[in-house]
Structures are given as structure tokens and as C-alpha cells.
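Re: the 508-residue chain
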Amino acid sequence: MLNSTLKSAIGRLWDKFWSGGISNPLTAIEQISYLLFMKRLDELDIKKKNDAEFTGEPYKSIFEGANNELRWSHFKQMEGGEMLLHIQTKVFPFLKTLGTEESHFAKHMGNAVFIISKPSLLVEAVSIIDEIFEEISEQESNGQGFQDTQGDLYEYLLSEITSAGKLGQFRTPRHIIQLICELVNPKLGDTICDPACGTGGFLLGAYQHILTTHTSKEHRQIDENGLTRGLLGDKLTSEKQWTHLKEKTFFGYDMDESMVRIGLMNLMMHGISSPNIEQKDTLSKKYNENSHYDVIMANPPFKGSIDKGDINEGLSLNTTKTELLFVNRIINSLKVGGRAGMIVPDGVLFGSSNAHKQARKMLLNDCELQGIVSMPSGVFKPYAGVSTAILIFVKGGETEKVWFYDMQSDGFSLDDKRTKINGGGDLPDIVEKWKNRKSQKENDRGSKFFLVGKKEIEKNDFDLSINRYKETEYEEVKYEDSEIILNKIETLEKDIVAGIKDLRQPQL
């Protein structure tokens, strides 16, 4: 969690950009991301150099041949006008050349523009970012992982966009991503995709989950959400494994090129050297990656619709609703045996249209629908108050029983402030019950979790909403005899009349 010092610094950074004339939140985040990326590159290169000196391995600087003039630590000391010109003419063009010419980063940075034009804004932004990194370093020395704090930093930056986009896009909280990773369990060697990746949160979550599973027990810890965390990855001893993980594992797509750039920088700042993120609408005719991925995790746009003429011919659902088409898209994009975890609005679970029913039939008949976690409506505040659920399924196989869990708390308040609450919420219990679900017997449907057979779901018109199957216990309320109640009312009435009479008496 970010402390008040970091939150205050981020607030000041936003204020500077707003007063400096960059008021569009997405534009501001993109420009802030460029600066964060410049700072992080310098930090990473210094760490790489120190590690090489310790191990005796050869070291090649990211800035080789640039005589250190492209480093943050060099240009931050310049006067405002000189620094702005230096970044515009040297540092930013250098950023656009990182990676090979064929890399996704180089491709999407090709038409990127550094639009900060006021020296005073640049100087203030650089100073605040230095403060932020100093505070993160201090937290790191106190045991808080840099990547965790940086992830919180980025999430908090993004949370400043307080309204969903026109396609219903909003950020997925990191602890919900972490939960879905625990349920889907992406592994080393899997090809992992998010067809609506935004800033790359699910891809980053999958990377960190894989690192955790390959970190020795003594280097793991239980985090503030009650889930296991360890980002050392010390069990990955082969350079070949690391190369495959960082270059051939993660694939993402988004319609917005600004989001693609932010996503690329986000993953690269977290150590994924060559993320594969492209600008593409995965519902359109331009996308044809069918039967391609081992794992897909996503929180695709809700409430959106797409022009019927643009819809990919491989999508068989007769609808323009994006939340339904993405169910179809994810099933199509998975290999047989591939695993998926996706967030859907509750309407997908019980909607009465033919397309809604057909989507649910796909999940039950073309996949093994393993689990549904119903989430409370405040999980996505302040962006939206819509009720949502997590679907966990495997392409192919046969659905026999569906495991339901009624999440009542995700560990945060369900208002716009989303404050951390004591107790950690249901996340650890969800993971524990999920991992042991195969040994669970049919249990009381009045509890948080239970199993429902496919045949029962079919009889209920393929309704997948938890309230259809959850039993609510009603305690019988015993009232006193009516004569006793009437006598009490008469007594109260007499007391009231007497009290009024006393009030009317003249005061001495």
C-alpha cells in the first residue's frame, strides 16, 4: 500500500500537469509514464552494473555510446530550458529506439510525442518523481518490494481517471488480478494473453504469479491481501527460462495506442524486456488468433457495442454487445485445454436474450466451466458500481458441476474511497476453498461456497447467477401475544397523555 507521502507526491504531480495545461488524464498519464520510464531505466542500468561487478559477469549499459548524457541522473541537474531541449532532441528520440526495430515497443513509440512544452512543468515533474523514487527506496530498505510499491504507484496514478471510458473501460484492482492468477494458475511455458489489456495489469500479474511459484519458500511472504507473494524467482536458474518468460510468454491487445504504449512501458519497467503488446481490436475482422493461447485472463469492456459489419466472422454469437462477444472471443482464442479467467458483469450470468443464453451454453457445453466467484458491487468503485463475477473455465472437456463462491468482501471498503479494512476479506478463503474444491462434498447452499450440477443449471434456463442457487436462511421471529402488545401500547399511550398534561401545567 502507498503511504501518505507517496499519495501526496502523486497528487502534486497531477496538479502540476493540470496547471501546466495538460488536463486530459490519459494524456497526462502517458507523459508521466515517459518520465517514470526515463527514471527507471537509469535505476535499472545502475543495478545491472552493480550486479555485474558483484558476480564478475560482463556488463553492457543500456546507454552505451551515449556518454551518460541520456541518463536521468545527468539531465535532471540541467536548467529548465536546457533540460527540456535535451529531452526533446536527445533523450526522447533515444527512448523510441529501445529494443530492435521489429520490437513492439519501437513500433508503437514511432509516433509518440513528448508534449511537455513548459520548462517549469518539466523541472517540477522531475523533482517530484525523484521524491517518489527516494520514498520507494526507503520503503524497500524497510522490506517493501520495489515492484510492489511501483505497482501500487502506477495503480494509484491510474485511479485518478475517475470515470470509465466510452467503451466501459476501467482499471482492474491489482488484488483482484492476483486472485484470478491464483485461480487460473499460469505456468512457465504457457502463452498468456489479455485481449483487452489496457495498461497490462493481467500480464504483469501473471508474470509475478510465475515468479512467486518459482521463488523459494524462505523468500515468500503473505502479503496484505492474505495471498502468497515472492518475486525473486530464484528457482529459475536457466537463462533460457528467463528469456522465454520475458520474450515469448506475454501477449496483449488494445484498441487505444496510448494504452498500448503505457502497457509496454509498465511491463518493461517491471522487468519484462520484450512484451508483445499490439494495437488491435480483437473483436474485429483484423484479428484471427484462434486456438492460439494456453491462458487468457481479462477484464474486457462492459456496456460497449461494435458495428455489426466490423465483427469477426468467427464469432458466432448474434449480438453487438462487447461483454458477450468477448466470451466468444476468449473461447475461440484458447487452445483446447487452455484456461481462462475473465470478469463479466452480472447480466451475462442471467440475461434473457438469445445471445446471453447462447454465451452461457458455450461456457457449459464447449468448455468445462469450473467456477464462478460473485463479487460485491463496490469492487470497481470509483469507476463503476456494477456487480460483477469472475468466470474460470477450460476450453474443451465437459462441465459436470460448477463451483460457486459468494465473495462478500475483497478486503477494502466498498465505497468510493476503497479503504483497506482489517481482516483481509475473503480472498485467502477463496483460494483455499478453490484448491480443495474437488474434495468438497455437496454442502449447505446457505454457506459462501457450494457446488451446482450442470443438469440443475440447464433446468433453470442456463442461469448462472449465484442467487438462483444460494439458499437464504430465514429465522422465525416470535412475537408476543397480541393481547400483551395491546396492553403495552395502552400503557405507553397513558404515559404520553400524562406527560403532555404535565407540560401544560403553568411553570412556577
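The chain has a mean pLDDT of 87.
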